Amino acid sequence: MDDEARGRAIGLLGDFNDRMTRVVDAVFGTSWAEIEEIIALVLLASERIVTTRRLAEVSGLGRRAVSRLVLRLQTADLVVTRAAATDARAVEVVLTAAGEERALTLHRETTAFFSASTDIARAISDGMATPAPSSPPVSPADALDLLLRICEAGARLVRYMPAAATRGKLAARQRAALVLIAMQGGVRPSELAGPLELSAAGASHVVDQLCAKGFVARVRGTVPEDRRAVVLRATPAGFEAVGAVAFGIEQESASLATLFAELAAWRTD
């Protein structure tokens, strides 16, 4: 991929990821859920009964993070736990009736989201592949199966980021803000509130976190008509983090092209 195609791919994938995250957030009441948590929720919704070990292995969440997630779902009456019948040392997480309803809602909302996303999926696939990927199978995958595979691809891209930007040090909303700042070459803090679905104060807090971690800097004197105006610019560390994702996209371009070609051909009939 050339630099222009790479930048376009990052933008399109970022937009798709934000919309996908909103779907899961709306169903489970989360707020900008991390990709690993989304994988765990989708796996549970798809399989209905999952051991905590499998949740950790598939999602990439640590054991403590899985325990916190399960406890939160228990508190919401969405799951119960029990010893596995085949291995008393293993703990199974089982959807309750309310959890089953939430899983059906996720399936329905994901199906609608995919149906509305075929154009952006085609644009992503075409931008990734040279030559274009072969046509996907005629029969579409189950919506949650495809969602899980897309989330796993997203998790692989996040892992390309430097250690300082992963492992909980740079949360999903912070990564989204960093990409916006780096790609636009200078953003006013107030311009982040809408894309991040935050108040002005909330957006300012995200900026504070990015500045404290060395990924973003506040700069004055660059707006001719208002020399006191503050704009945000990515630091070398910030550009390194975003560039690592661009590198990851390049490395994963063939599999991403095929995956999004499958989504581009999505239909529910």
Task: Write up this protein.
By secondary structure, this protein is mainly alpha-helical. Helix content is 61%, strand content 9%. The protein has helices at 3-28, 35-47, 52-59, 63-75, 97-115, 118-128, 143-158, 172-184, 193-196, 200-212, 236-251, 253-264; strands at 49-51, 79-83, 91-95, 216-220, 230-234. A three-stranded antiparallel beta sheet has the order 1-3-2. The chain has a two-stranded antiparallel ribbon with strand order 4-5. A hairpin with a 7-residue loop joins strand 2 (79-83) and strand 3 (91-95). Helix 1 runs antiparallel to helix 5, helix 1 (3-28) packs antiparallel against helix 6 and helix 2 packs across helix 3 (52-59). The radius of gyration is 20 Å and the shape is globular.
Quick overview:
The protein is mainly alpha-helical and 269 residues long.
How would the global form be characterised?
globular
Structural class: mainly alpha
Question: What integer value in Å does the Rg equal?
Answer: 20 Å
Q: Sheet with the most strands?
A: 3 strands, antiparallel
Strand arrangement across the biggest beta sheet: 1-3-2
Which helices and strands appear, and what pairs or packs with what?
Layout: H1 3-28, H2 35-47, E1 49-51, H3 52-59, H4 63-75, E2 79-83, E3 91-95, H5 97-115, H6 118-128, H7 143-158, H8 172-184, H9 193-196, H10 200-212, E4 216-220, E5 230-234, H11 236-251, H12 253-264
Antiparallel strand pairs: 1-3, 2-3, 4-5
Helix pairs in contact: 1-5, 1-6, 1-11, 2-3, 2-5, 2-7, 3-4, 6-12, 7-12, 8-10
